[in-house]
Amino acid sequence: MGQALYGKRCLDLFAGSGALGFEAASRGAEQVVMVEQDRSVYKVLQDSLSKLELSNVALHCNDELKFASQTNSTFDVVFLDPPFQSDLLSQLMPRLAQLLTEDGVVYVESGDSFDAGADWQVIKQHRAGAVHYQLLERI
Questions:
Q1: Could you give the CA distance from residue 90 to residue 93 in angstroms, rounded to a whole number?
Q2: What is the set of domains in the chain, with CATH numbers?
Q3: pLDDT of 2 strictly over 60
């Protein structure tokens, strides 16, 4: 995706360290919504956001599946980097259609190669060490 985030609305579920969301914000995203369930990790994200002074980032301390099911917002880019040993990707994929704009894409990081299903086309995929990543779009 490189520099193609200018003016985009991004959702970073499973924000963790915040690397994906903060990078999107620094690359010109209009808005970045970061969701993290773990309260201690969320507090670290709040501290980082305060230091970085990024006005285009909103943090939410919430269950990621619950947030994905309840938000009325749509996004141009959704970042998914859940814990690798979970089945959260499989649970989230059916919910993504309601979260994406018409031309929206999903960036997925996983421990193993991930099959998103027949409704998704892989635009790009690669492996870096133990991390598999894919850029997906709806068919």
A1: 6
A2: 9-138 (3.40.50.150)
A3: no
